[in-house]
Structure formats: structure tokens, C-alpha cells
Design a protein that fits this description.
Length: about 250
């Protein structure tokens, strides 16, 4: 599931489709995230013509345009035939900060070096293929036991209760820090989060080197494929909710 840091640089693109999607891309570009290209499209065919060399694609679109433009067929083709990991985010129900944090979180895992990296194929196996919600939380800490404290802060950032984690079918975690982060800290984060989750959860974790983190450990957790998404959403801070559109 994990592999050592790779030298290749996967190509990541964010597509804005329709008026809302293009506005969302405009907002994301203001944050100058490195290693990501931004593209605009009016139709699914316009996206198809811009896919050469892409390993990971985010498509920002609202649910109405997704349906009207028959985007599900293209997304299925991108995933299954072209082997492009594709994540479709509903811009009408997800705020800009969560969109930005999600794109950065997933892109960093496959672009930036770390003790343990993911690739675009790993991401493709993790993401749901149907319309559903996801929860994104992040926390940071420094000093003694910083890794466990950062993991606890990431869980607490999304909800007053950690019970929602037990209904998640998929969990993707990143540990971000300076070059002094250790595999022991990595393992302590995995163990801390695992205590709240089902034994059969599809669990994946990677690390990202970030010199600007200094002595901090930053943990980000994305959970999805919930047993009962609508019930889960009731207890989650709206600022942490994502709405994913599947093929």
C-alpha cells in the first residue's frame, strides 16, 4: 500500500466546469498552490481534450451541471480507461476553503516527497465511485507527543464527537512536518486514529515534508464512504464537509 519517496512528479490539474466551477477555480488560483495547473471547460468534451499527461484531476462543478453535461460518463472513462485518478467536487455545497484544503491535501500526498508517499493509483482506489459526502479535518501540535496531539486535534476540528469515524469505510491521513518527523510518530498517528474506526476500514496514510512546519506536526484526515452519510452530516461542522460526485 505504501512505497518509499519517488522522484517522478505527477501532473495534477484542477478543472472548472460551468459557471460555478470556473468561479471556484478562480478562487483557488489566488492561493498559489504549487505543482497544480488550472484549466477551464464549458463541456465534458472540452475537458477530454485537455487530459494528455494528467495523472490526477480535480473537477469542480455543481451537481446540476454535472448531470446536464453527462459528466459521469467522462469521469468513468478517465478512471477506468485512461487511468486518471479523478475527484469531482460539488461547488454548490462545498465552501471554497474546504475545496482548497482538499485539493492541496491530496495533491501534496503525491507531489511532495516524504518518508512514505502515495501515487495517483493509490488515490484512485480510495475515492468513492458514487455521490456521497466526505469529512476533512486538520490539526497541529508541537513539543512532546506532538503527533498524537495533532491527530486528536484533527479529529476534534470536525465534530465534538469522534463517533462519526466508526461509520467511515475509507480513511486517508497525512502527517506533515519538517525533516525531523519520524516513523514512530507516523505509527502513533495511525494507532490513535485506528482506535476510533472499524477494523475493516480502507486505511491509507502518507507523509509530506514541509520545511515551513518548523517543529510542528500537522495531521490531516479525510474520511468518506460512510454507512449512513445523511446521519453523519448532522454532527459535522459544515466547514469540514465535502460533497463528492461519482461516476
Amino acid at each position: 500500500m505504501f512505497e518509499l519517496s519517488k522522484s517522478k512528479s505527477p501532473t495534477v490539474a484542477v478543472f472548472g466546469l460551468g459557471n460555478n466551477g470556473c468561479r471556484a477555480v478562480d478562487d483557488l488560483q489566488k492561493h498559489s498552490m504549487t505543482g497544480i495547473t488550472y484549466r477551464y471547460a464549458d463541456t465534458s468534451e472540452h475537458i477530454r481534450g485537455q487530459l494528455t499527461g494528467i495523472h490526477l484531476a480535480f473537477i469542480l462543478v455543481d451537481a446540476e451541471d454535472y448531470t446536464n453535461l453527462n459528466l459521469s460518463r467522462l469521469v468513468s472513462n478517465m478512471q477506468d480507461v485512461m487511468e486518471i485518478s479523478t475527484i469531482v467536487l460539488d461547488t454548490a455545497q462545498t465552501n471554497t476553503n474546504v475545496l482548497m484544503n482538499t485539493v492541496k491535501f491530496i495533491a501534496d500526498l503525491i507531489i511532495n516527497p516524504g518518508l512514505i508517499n502515495l501515487d495517483s493509483a493509490d488515490v484512485r482506489t480510495m475515492m468513492p465511485t458514487h455521490n456521497t459526502l466526505a469529512v476533512l479535518g486538520s490539526g497541529q501540535a508541537h513539543g512532546e507527543d506532538r503527533a498524537i496531539k495533532a491527530a486528536q486535534a484533527a479529529i476534534a476540528s470536525t465534530s465534538a464527537e469522534a463517533n462519526y469515524l466508526m461509520s467511515a469505510g475509507t480513511c486517508l491521513i497525512s502527517m506533515e512536518g519538517n525533516v525531523d518527523m519520524t516513523l514512530h510518530e507516523f505509527e502513533s498517528i495511525m494507532n490513535e486514529v485506528a482506535t476510533f474506526m472499524r477494523p475493516d476500514v480502507n486505511f491509507m496514510m502518507a507523509t509530506v515534508f514541509n520545511p515551513k512546519a518548523q517543529d510542528k506536526c500537522i495531521v490531516t484526515i479525510l474520511t468518506t464512504n460512510f454507512i449512513n452519510p445523511s446521519e453523519t452530516a448532522l454532527g459535522i461542522n459544515k466547514a469540514n464537509l465535502l460533497f463528492l460526485l461519482g461516476a
